[in-house]
Design a protein that fits this description.
The protein is built from six helices and five strands, in the order ββαβααββααα. It has 205 residues and is of the alpha/beta class. The chain has a domain of 136 residues: Ribonuclease H-like superfamily/Ribonuclease H (Nucleotidyltransferase, domain 5). This is Ribonuclease HII.
Length: 205
């Protein structure tokens, strides 16, 4: 049973990210402020839901939320500031886009950085404990999946529509065969045997 509020403060926002462990594509975060009486029975941590259920929940969350926002941080930034900082940056940017401004932030995980003096708490496995974090996890995952399906059309050989940029055997075989693209994270270990980055690039990056 998911809880509706952690702080007891109105306009509490939950935030979460998706795509942290991927080899390609953005890290995507969402932040959501829910009403006090918000309730959707199917809602849970996005990792516990199948794609069909997540896609069913997305418009319901958007319709019922007081406010929500989604932010993509592109691979180039991930490479520049590292994946942890990129994940936090994505969540911070989401929070800044919310209207009304949240009075309290609850973050999935154990790392965050203060933003605009808004009090916050990090909650390990928060996406399976609090509705607003679960809702944020669903939005982050569905928006990122849509993005990966879109760039799949540009580079179908990596099958991002299916693997979403995660390090599947198929994805790594495609990297070995075709090299990397502008959507790959060059600071990540893209192949198990990788010692240094000597991949070929596509002409149109």
């Amino acid at each position: 049973m998911l809880l509706s509020n952690f702080s007891g403060i109105y306009y509490e926002t939950g935030t979460d990210e998706a795509g942290r462990g991927c080899l390609a594509g953005p890290v995507t975060a969402a932040a959501v402020i829910l009403t006090e009486d918000f309730e959707i029975e199917l809602l849970n941590d996005s990792k516990q839901l199948n794609e069909k259920t997540r896609n069913l929940l997305k418009p319901l969350i958007e319709e019922k939320a007081v406010s929500y926002s989604v932010t993509n941080i592109e691979p180039k930034i991930v490479d520049e500031i590292n994946i942890l900082n990129a994940s936090i940056k994505a969540m911070q940017e989401c929070i800044m886009k919310l209207d009304p401004k949240p009075s309290y932030i609850i973050v999935d995980g154990n790392r965050f950085k203060p933003i605009k003096d808004i009090p916050y708490s990090c909650i390990v496995k928060g996406d399976s404990k609090y509705m607003s974090i679960a809702a944020a996890s669903v939005l982050a995952k569905t928006y990122r999946d849509e993005y990966m399906a879109k760039i799949h059309e540009e580079y179908p050989m990596y099958n991002w529509k299916k693997n979403k940029g995660y390090p599947t055997k198929e994805h790594r075989e495609a990297i070995r065969k075709y090299g990397i693209t502008k959507y790959h994270r060059k600071s990540f270990r893209l192949l198990p045997e990788q010692l240094e980055l000597d991949f070929k690039y596509h002409e149109n990056i």
